[in-house]
User: Fold Claudin from Malurus elegans.
Amino acid sequence: MASASLQFFAFILALCGVFGDIAATLLPNWKVNADIGTNIITAVTQMQGLWMDCTWYSTGMFSCTLKYSILSLPVYIQAARTTMVLSCILSAFGICITTVGMKCTKLGGDTDSKNHACFAGGVCFILAGIFGLVPTSWYTREIISNFLDQTIPESSKHEPGGAVYTGFISAGFLLIAGVIFCSSCFKRQQGAWIYPPKEHHFPSTEQESNAGYNLKDYV
Assistant:
């Protein structure tokens, strides 16, 4: 029961990680630049994401521009696009596989098949967490290096946006869920290897009883 409850908890973490991963991939606020200017009424917030750049005005207007050209983008944005999409795909596969392999479900067949499915889903979650952690770390490093660069004007400097923090948290959830799924299956298999089922044989008793009958026959 404890293992089933732990797997269910890991499944909830993985669901939160999947939704957060998809949200972080689609959100336009990977880096934010707030230009207040001389008047709060004319404040402008510029946001840049993986797929679009958006501008929000204090008057309530909001406009976005899609990034159509892939080759014109910096390398870290291209890499972030690829790895975040892979993270979403792997995490979705992990949800489908672990649904079959969890102990609280009636899918997947016997215990060994469910253990293998659960372990495969955990590996998918771990890979998805790694693919989600790499672009967010790289993106944050680029933002910080540009922010500390004295040659870049203040109007062109940005700060990490909410999508970056969402990506970090989602990657952590996926990593934790993957480790829980893999460790729960590994412990069960390891216990079966260390403590194999004992077989009860009584050859000596049977031989002694047969020997006793033989002696009585000769007497």
User: Anything to note?
Assistant: Confidence is low (pLDDT under 50) at residues 189-195, 215-219. The longest strand covers residues 52-57.
